[in-house]
Each structure stands twice: as structure tokens, then as C-alpha cells.
Amino acid sequence: MLGGATTQARTGPALPEEGTPVETGPAVKPVAAWNAFCERMPAECTVNTAEAAFIHLDAAIWRTLTSVNRRVNARIKPITDQAHWGVIDRWDYPDDGFGDCEDYQLLKRRMLVERGLPRRALRMTVVIDDIGEGHAVLMVRTDRGDFILDNKTNTVLPWARTGYSYVKREGQDGTRWVSLNGGASPVTTANR
């Protein structure tokens, strides 16, 4: 067992097996807090449709995904939007070191874009989590399937292995959101 761990540490995380992409449905309304975020920071919501819609997942990209997920999860302290901002649901960057689920994911997306990954392949996503609450994750669209960065785990997982019900995510054209797997939408993503 120790030998396997040493090899893993020396070579980095192994590439995951290929998965499947999430099934997308018709256009749906984004979360209201997303709209407010985009009004405050329009450049963060603009998608260049000339960018790749899917990332070629190789060992270097996989290391980047796992590293960013782990680093942000360790760096940000969870707090509800009500306690942090005095409102039920607000999407923003956790620049003060505090945030809830979508704030973690926005920071991860910003860091991945800074490392050269196309924003178009990094989609904010709304799910119903393992305790039945609205939750936000970052879906990374790759040629090996869709993978999830989540503040509830340091492990980057294929979407189908999270145990979540997928509701909706940003579309790939930057102008709309799309439904996922026929999911019903929560009112907020106010989950830590």
C-alpha cells in the first residue's frame, strides 16, 4: 500500500477513466444571483464562442484541476450568504477568505482561466446535493467526459459519481443556461 502511495505522489494523480457528458435539455432561466453577479462583473460571464467547448484532458490538465480544487477548498472558510452578505443568495468571489458553494466555484474557474483553460469549457452548474439542498459546482467539459470540482470534496469526480441530481448549468454560448437530465430547479444555491 505504501509503495502505491509513493508512486502516486511521485507521478501525480492518474487520469480518470473516460466518462460521459451530461445530457443537456432546453434553455432555462439562470439563478437570479448569477444574473446579479453578471451585472456586477460582465467580463466574468462573457463566453468567447471561438474558444474550445471541451478541454483535451491530459495528465498536466488533470494535475491542474485537482490542485486548484484542493487549494481553493483549503483556502476558503465556509459561510452562508446570509451570514456573509445579509442576503439569502449572492454569487461573488471569496476574496475575503469566506464564501459558500458558488463562491468557491467562481474562484476555481477564475484560477483555471488564469492557467490557460477556456472559460467556455468551465461551466457553473446547479445541482441538488446529497442532503436535498440546492448546491453549486463547477463542471469541467472534457474530451473524457464531464468532471466536477466541488467544495465538499477534494476529489475531482465524473459527474455521474457525485451522487447529485443535476438541474442546470451555463450554456456553451454564453447567452443562456440549459437544463440537465430533466432536473427541477432549486430557488437558491445557499448551501455551504
UniProtKB/TrEMBL annotation:
It comes from the Bacteria. Residues 1-10 have a biased composition (Polar residues). Pfam families: Peptidase_C93 (PF06035). Residues 1-26 are annotated as: Disordered. InterPro entries: Transglutaminase-like_Cys_pept. This is Transglutaminase. It comes from Methylobacterium durans. The lineage of its organism: Bacteria, Pseudomonadati, Pseudomonadota, Alphaproteobacteria, Hyphomicrobiales.
